TrEMBL record:
Top-rank taxon, per record: Bacteria
Domain Luciferase-like stretches: 1-303
GO molecular function: alkanal monooxygenase (FMN-linked) activity
Biological source species: Paraburkholderia hiiakae
UniProt-recorded name of the protein: Alkanal monooxygenase alpha chain
Keywords annotated in UniProt: Monooxygenase, Oxidoreductase
Record PANTHER family: BLR5498 PROTEIN, LUCIFERASE-LIKE MONOOXYGENASE
Annotated EC: 1.14.14.3
InterPro entries to which the protein is assigned, alphabetical: Bact_Lucif_Oxidored, Luciferase-like_dom, Luciferase-like_sf
Pfam families according to UniProt: Bac_luciferase
Length: 341
């Protein structure tokens, strides 16, 4: 099983230590975290796309290019590319260029997005939310397959034997579908035979198992079961003991949900008792001692048959020294026990 990290680049507005984090510092720390992840033997590093002042990264390909220059083996991905509001031609060209820069290490996680801002910013209608994604995903597939494309659709100017340059170093850029839990999105990923990155941000893990089964069933009906791969993405915090992990993570976790809501207004702070109750062996964010994290990942693998586990460890204004320490714990005390699942 592959293990990776991803970041959404959130900027805590208050910061648990009483200081705000600026975008310049945040991006430097993200690049440093990617370097540490490669040194620790992780397989993947992903960066999300947001178009708000409370996030540092709106152009993942640019930051990933900087990371590519200081790494050599770790795979690099968006997490996610909001394809519904983007021009697939430009997305392909940017990530093909990144693939050349990185020596063929690039992937894309394509998603519909959960924030409203990109729709108004890029002149897209929210009521076309799903149709935009379906059409642009199909166009991206054509661009990925051929250097010359003829195409016509609803939401973009036609292409007539258009040259799509440059071409990626890989024969095609791997594309995963990012899914937040919508059964329709799960079925679409399976029907198209595309790898799926499923967010598991809370709640009982058996729901992820049900969605994994739905995904594979859709792939089998489409005759594409052989091409299916599944990643589970979620929040992770490790400490030497269960109690220390919960106590240390709660302030950052609760701050993250206050700041980073799609509605762009402060969300309610999660009561600490509710947070503690949400974390069991089979539910909640991935918080605990190394042994607990091993058990959680192993259970999720049993329930879902996942091929990847990708963790977000840097939320709510968490200081970089804590993030670096967690990468070390993950590499030293967790990965050796779950890599072979």
């Amino acid at each position: 099983m592959e293990i990776g990290l991803y970041t959404l680049s959130d900027l805590s507005s208050v910061g648990v230590n009483g200081q705000s984090v600026d975008a310049h510092t945040r991006i430097k720390e993200i690049a440093a975290a990617a370097q540490l992840a490669e040194q620790a033997g992780l397989d993947l590093f992903g960066i999300g796309e947001h178009h708000r002042l409370d996030f540092a990264v709106s152009a993942p390909a640019v930051v990933l290019a900087a990371i590519a220059a200081s790494t050599s083996t770790i795979r690099l991905t968006s997490a996610v590319t909001v394809l519904s509001t983007a021009d697939p031609v430009r997305v392909y060209e940017e990530f093909a260029t990144l693939d050349l820069v990185s020596g063929g290490r690039v992937e894309i996680i394509a998603g519909r997005g959960v924030f409203r801002e990109p729709f108004s910013l890029f002149d897209c209608q929210l009521e076309d939310y799903d149709a935009l994604f379906e059409e642009k995903l199909a166009l991206f597939d054509q661009l990925n397959q051929s250097a010359r494309v003829t195409w016509k659709g609803r939401f973009r100017a036609p292409l007539n034997d258009a040259e799509i340059a440059p071409r990626a170093l890989q024969p095609t850029i791997p594309v995963w579908i990012g899914v937040g839990g919508s059964p329709d999105s799960v079925i679409r990923a399976g029907r198209l035979g595309l790898p799926m990155a499923l967010a598991v941000l809370g709640g009982p893990y058996h729901k992820a198992g049900q969605l994994a089964a739905l995904y594979r069933s859709a792939g089998q009906r489409a005759g594409l079961a052989q091409s299916l791969r599944l990643a589970i993405n979620g929040h992770l915090h490790i400490a030497e003991s269960s109690q220390a992990a919960r106590a240390d993570f709660y302030p950052y976790y609760s701050q993250y949900w206050v700041d980073s809501t799609p509605a762009k207004s402060p969300g309610p702070r999660i009561p600490q008792e509710d947070f503690n109750r949400s974390i069991t062996q089979s539910s909640g964010p991935f918080v605990g001692s190394p042994a607990e994290i091993i058990d959680k990942i192993s259970l999720l693998h049993e329930l879902t048959g996942m091929d990847r586990f990708v963790a977000q460890v840097d939320i709510g204004g968490m200081p970089f020294n804590k993030i670096a320490g967690m990468i070390d714990l993950l590499a030293e005390k967790v990965i050796p026990h779950v890599r072979g699942l």
